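Lab notebook, bench 4. We co-purified these components, and the gel suggests they stay together. Before we commit to crystallization screens, I want a quick structural picture of the whole thing.
Request: model the full complex, all chains together.
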Amino acid sequence: MKNYHINLLAILSLFVFIFSCQFTTNTKDSETIILEYNFLESWNEGATKTSIQDFVKRTTTENSADFIPEKDRIAVFDNDGTLWGEQPYYFQLAYAIDFVKKEAPNHPEWSKDPIFQAAIVGDMKGLMGGGEKGLIELVMKSHAGMTEDQFEAAVRNWLSTSRHPDTGRPYDEMIFQPMLELLDFLRAHDYKVFIVSGGGIDFLRVWAEEAYGIPPYHVVGSSIKATYQELNGKMEIVKIPELNFIDDKSGKPVGIHQHIGKKPIIAVGNSDGDFEMLEYTTQLPGLRLGLLIHHTDSVREYAYDSLSHIGRLRIGLTEGPSRGWVVVDMAKDWNTIYPISKDQ
Amino acid sequence: MKNYHINLLAILSLFVFIFSCQFTTNTKDSETIILEYNFLESWNEGATKTSIQDFVKRTTTENSADFIPEKDRIAVFDNDGTLWGEQPYYFQLAYAIDFVKKEAPNHPEWSKDPIFQAAIVGDMKGLMGGGEKGLIELVMKSHAGMTEDQFEAAVRNWLSTSRHPDTGRPYDEMIFQPMLELLDFLRAHDYKVFIVSGGGIDFLRVWAEEAYGIPPYHVVGSSIKATYQELNGKMEIVKIPELNFIDDKSGKPVGIHQHIGKKPIIAVGNSDGDFEMLEYTTQLPGLRLGLLIHHTDSVREYAYDSLSHIGRLRIGLTEGPSRGWVVVDMAKDWNTIYPISKDQ
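Here is the predicted assembly.
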């Protein structure tokens, strides 16, 4: 009887022991499996997907000749046209137009300004005719005097009430599923991911954490100046109508230098506004990745490149390949465009 | 014999099982023990230490009324006089003087500039007489035309060859051991820690990761402008002699807004240059922590406050307590000042 007891105990503890070992091993195994197979599900098999996987493997495998220490694994992503859509016009422009229309009754002085007039009557040609400078002026002037909290509330309110004109989706669901998977894939390999966008830094910060898991302090963008001043008995950050920084073209490497302070290992963009960012990243010695998202899918998204007013991609396509940049063909390389909508 | 075998197996597997349990439990236990008891070793028991521990416990314990979600746990630290020393003069000024002396033979035009002249002959009174503006001018003009890599190499070289005039330590070992422990304590409770310094952002970024474990993209500081341009056949970030941002006084909340984009929960400083940063942080509703390091230790460090040219602390001491800010008395609250030197 005594022996029987001990045998039972032996079997029991063996089971528990084996189970506890299994448990430990399983955790590690499943982690490994996820890292190797479960990422990038919306990317079709092919040269593009393989080149991304190979790059990450080579830069994150210890003893690899191309190994990069965790602390230096920096990946920078453009936003408009790279992480989310940008057609038929930049989404922040849609926000600014809606804001100006809503606020116009309180600002009779706006009616004398041609840029504001174009916004109020929805004259897109007139707006685009003013070029980048006109758009920046619109955003700058319309938001002057707002506190950081007021601006955040205005953007949040707009996101929850507005829908994209073609898809009917909320704008923060016009994000690209394959890019969400790429962000996750990189983070799982200890890359820090940053947004480096021509768009407004404060506009992006309102929703980027929820949409992409990218916190405000990993967002670089264009900005107007701000002051710290008393307002209604409280000290506030208040936006002022003075340009601070344009984070586009050669501004992107400068923005990276100012905000990140480390040279990236991976740069991802979609337009010639990203050329300098990819150039800055990939000219460095050592293995580097430049990735260009080419909008080729007129059925599921939009097809545009060298002739487009928005997101023009010309130099990237002609010079990119000779620089070793990988061009992602959306129609061919992606089996899904958008994530499942929360509305559905 | 068979029974004996099984008994042995029983005992063996029990041992292994117990050991494996122990191993798992120990890891968790020791983690918990470290979190609760082993941090802040260089802080003497007392009201200051208790108030820090209580604050962190209340803001990081789920179901606490003061619980703050991980993503919002932002702590900002001044650098000069808070994380490292600043006497007998700002360490970056020591760097700039050494740099100007070394480079002067290549810049005959400097001899006509009184600020450069004061630096070259080591006339500290003349230098300080120019005030903050003079010092910024010195740093700006002396570094114009340098690439980001050249600047980093110059700072690294200076750090490895220079010693503090009073202690003989390398400057990057003039950091405060109790503050290193505070940074660790906060990080272990999922606070993200940032430097928000009046000092130069690029100067700080060279050594802050090694000294404090704070990566370049968590450093906010003063800066001059930079361009992205061709230099010797390579595209480079080049510093230009134009002021970009002064991250001091009311500039600190603006710097936090621009770089971090979230309001801090904890702000730590030591001078009136940090007043606005602590004000901005602690005026928010909800539990917030403002901490002021008061240099009271003339034996182990330096004793100075309201009359000091460098690190003047006057308003903080008079207004701080009524705002609920905690004043750290270095002589009383810290049992150690500096970490063990790597030289020793």
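The radius of gyration of chain A is 24 Å. Worth comparing against the SEC data before the next meeting. Chain A has two domains: 40-88+174-333, 91-161.
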